[in-house]
Inverse folding.
């Protein structure tokens, strides 16, 4: 009769981490819990100024390319004459496209870089705070079941991609940030969900 007790005790000891993980996931936090924080406001302020400067620079180049050059009589205009209308318009479109791409990339990166992740009281909603242009910050509150982490923290070298249902691009968590509650992060926001 006593021979089954050691086996039962070993089984309970083996299942204890599983039971602890389940109770952690099932219990809702009574207050807001910070899961991730990475403060880089100064970097995003400089990034915003850089992108705005690049936008102004490339826009002024496009305007200068569209301006009529001084008319000087040249006896022969060749195919590669930089004063021709085709070259001027092509240069203006190229400069405008480069300026738009630099401005758009900086804006998109700052809107998708996460400053903090907060699990709301009750454990059903998550608030993502992004840096936004010039480091100002925007808040997005979504249900927890609409957030999916595409990789585990240990699998990625630099950025942790987070997918939010209904949003076109991934949100990026920089791994050099601080995870105050790693186990709760892994069980809630850090879990993969099929969206």
């Amino acid at each position: 009769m006593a021979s089954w007790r050691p086996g039962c005790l070993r089984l309970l000891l083996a299942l204890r981490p599983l039971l602890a993980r389940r109770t952690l996931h099932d219990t809702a936090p009574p207050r807001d819990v910070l899961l991730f924080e990475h403060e880089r406001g100064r970097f995003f302020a400089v990034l915003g100024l850089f992108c705005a400067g690049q936008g102004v620079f490339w826009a002024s180049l496009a305007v200068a390319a569209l301006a009529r050059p001084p008319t000087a009589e040249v006896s022969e205009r060749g195919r590669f004459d930089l004063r021709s209308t085709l070259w001027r318009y092509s240069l203006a479109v190229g400069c405008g496209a480069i300026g738009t791409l630099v401005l758009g990339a900086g804006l998109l990166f700052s809107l998708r870089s996460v400053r903090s992740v907060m699990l709301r009281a009750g454990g059903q909603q998550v608030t993502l705070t992004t840096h936004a242009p010039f480091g100002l910050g925007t808040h997005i509150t979504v249900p927890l079941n609409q957030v999916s982490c595409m990789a585990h923290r240990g699998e990625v070298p630099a950025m942790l991609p987070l997918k939010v249902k209904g949003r076109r691009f991934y949100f990026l968590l920089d791994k050099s940030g601080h995870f105050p509650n790693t186990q709760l992060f892994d069980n809630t926001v850090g879990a993969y969900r099929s969206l």
User: Anything to note?
Assistant: The radius of gyration is 27 Å. The CA atoms of residues 59 and 96 lie 6 Å apart. The first strand starts at residue 33 and ends at 37.
